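This part of the workshop introduces the protein records we will be handling. A learned vocabulary of local backbone shapes supplies the integers on the structure line. Getting from the letters to the tokens is the skill we practise here. As an example, a complete record with its sequence and its structure tokens follows.
=====
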Amino acid sequence: PVSLITTKAGETVIDFGQIMSGWVEFYCREKEGGEVFFQFGEILQDGNFYNENLRSAKEEYRYISNGKERWVRPHFTFYGFRYMKVTGITELRLEDFIGRVIYSEMERTGKITTSNWKINQLFQNAFWGQIGNFLDVPTDCPQRDERMGWTGDIAVFSPTALYNFELSRFLEKWLRDVKAEQLPTGGIPNTVPVQGYGFPATMPEMAVDWWGDACVLVPWALYEATGSLDVLRMMYPTMQKYVKACCFWAGFGIGKHRYIWHTPSVLHFGDWVAPDVPKMSQWQARSKYTATASLCNTSGTLAKIARILGKTEDAAKYKELSRKVADAYCSVLADGNGKTKEEFQTAYVLPLYLNMFPENVKAKAAENLVKLVEKNDYKIGTGFPGTPYILFALADNGHADTAYKMLLNTQYPSWLYEVRVGATTVWERWDGLDENGECPIGDDGTDMMISYNHYASGAVGAFLYRRVLGVEPTEAGYRKFKFAPVVGGGITEAEGKVGTPYGVIKAAWKIADGEMTMTVAVPVGTECTVVLPSGEEKVLGSGEYTVTAKA
């Protein structure tokens, strides 16, 4: 614990300083029959204990003393919390309490620090969000009455997750569950293991559009990180059936419209929790954009996997499918000249990141995205499907300055807004707390359902590793990798490490007096391409190197 609080309401609350998943051990000194009662929450409201965002989850622990002094902890449960409300302790001593953080056993492999403390805190927030939700299955949140393996969250977060930890056992175990839960139609349930939670998780049309994509994107991320073909072989039939199901639900149109998603009259997620529009129906209405890009991505990724596995006919088939979907997106959902029919950030981010626009219009599309970002004062406007990729879409298309302005923005909504108002994990919604630290109010006049430990938007971690630090695999398992920092935003130095099957990559760069110094440790059996600020490349074998160049 970091402090003991007596709230305005007269409550006794212990602050552990960090939103975490686990439990509290305490030393009980109470007399026989004395009842101790703990309640857990993530935030305070108006200085008082708060747990309304947990919905029906109790998150509480009750203990009746037998009169013997002893250390006590709960069993067969865990809590998501930072604050604990205490009643029944006669003489409270902070040294009698220990917060125990729990998560599945996994080796930490990655870390980043920079010259910007806010970016460092953002990295830590994403890290804590991961360990708070990697308990047996990759959950969406660890605190409220959900705690389920939502597929969409891990689909977008897996590249970041695999930088932070070695996850072969953890993710392969979960992917076996995905394989087992696949529907006869080919669809993937929204949550694995299946728990519909009011959603028709057994309906195939519910299981596409980045959520079901987890059956393709997670194995691919695992392959990129480890180089192991086993997970690709295991999941290949699942991926094939899934892409076939996606084609079915996109295939009701004529001509190019056959490759455009047609949203049926059931719940669909679309641009989930995009902050530029307030209603679920508006996020859902964007499904024709997000799900069409999704089909392009999954079929294109499956083409690469088929080629790697030696299935040349399949590779050609899926590559052609991906090409046709991309062409349909650019000519049906856009004007053929790089402008989307409906303009919102995700509508540009996905085709830019996935290289769906033809080369002759890609620059125009990127400029249109920049205009939207500038008009929005460099604030984020993407939901789950676009958030992991927007900084890449900008930086990799000649607009690194715009990407850094968005990354470093501290106004709502932004990653660093959460940091500025004291977040220690990543939120489910960008509007989790206002400037006064208050929860937003829903249309029904009650506090909105919000998780303050939800790692999906922490997928920005991949950008921190791949562009800010600059380390990215160019061959699966990092047998070959590049060290190519994208400098900007006033950040003058960064250092970090990335674990690989060959050993640890250590990389650092620093700018001083107009000169950039880059150091890198290249593991035995690997090859690193260092890209200098001028664009010059140096290919290095195993060893430790320092390279200097004009910044």
Notes: The chain has a mean pLDDT of 94. The two ends are 44 Å apart (CA to CA).
